[in-house]
Amino acid sequence: MSAVRSILAVVLVAAMACSDKGGGSGDPDAPVGDGDGSVNDGDGGTTGDGGGGTGDGGGGTGDGGTASCTAAGPQCNNCLDDDGDGRVDGADIECTGALDNDESSFSTGIPGDNIDTVHQDCFFDGNSGAGDDGCDIHVCCLLGAPDRASCPFGANQYDPAQCNTPETQACVALCAPLTPPGCDCFGCCTLCDPVTNVCRDVLTNPAVAPNCDADHLSDPVACPACIQRTDCGTPCGAEMCVLCPGQDPNDLPPECNGSTQCPAGHAECGPGAPCPTDQFCSVGCCIDGVP
After folding, report:
1. Per residue in 31-43, pLDDT tens?
2. Which candidate, 107, 53, 122, 109, places its Cα nearest to that of 281?
3. How far, in Å, are 85, 96, 143, 147, 270 from residue 209 at the CA level?
4. In sequence order, which residues have a C-beta less than 8 Å from that of residue 82 and are 6 or more positions away?
5. Is the pLDDT of residue 103 over 80?
6. For 216, how many CA atoms within 13 A lie in the half-sphere containing its CB?
């Protein structure tokens, strides 16, 4: 009888260990991913209810939120709704990427990032200046100024004819994979008011539009209109069933059948569907992390 009791005890201990393994979906102390940083965290540990996220415990919001994040990460990648707008990390209209440390505005909170008002480089590479990415365009090309007299920044350097010059292959190769759905490589983005679903192409660079944020999308002074570059960026639109920033699947037309798509070359992501290693979930689609 003593031997039987010993065997039963061993079996019981083993069963308890198996039921606890891995921090299952009912464990509020389960880790978020593997804690090594969001962009490089490909294990998608934000699904379920563990990890200190908001609501679904991983930063996912049900409308294309981030699928991998870390509690110690930047604001746009820390599993939290830092600005209290109901959208977490990559589902927040003001988050530009995994290293963005300001969820409340289009400023990234990265020192030295996007500070040039005239020469615009890749808006999503975490720095300002065209020297390392091959991207360089005068801001008045984006603003659609027809001549120097209409150019509010660096007019003496503006040549409207140069606005038709295609982007370099180096720029496209580096910046396009970093660009969220709805934006071109220079931060001209199709942004949709989450309440009205009215969408505008808006220049989000804080050096040019410091007062532009999610609360002023319809204000043409705070959020100036822009003309997107079609040769470098990641498109969005109802006709493609691709969500634009600020939208959720309910904003898509009936022919999308409640299903969202991602542009070619971008995998879908969201709660339970993490991005591959070194990528970030933005508006329900995977984009590259900063190289």
Report:
1. 333 333 333 333 3
2. 53
3. 21, 15, 11, 20, 30
4. 75, 103, 104
5. no
6. 17
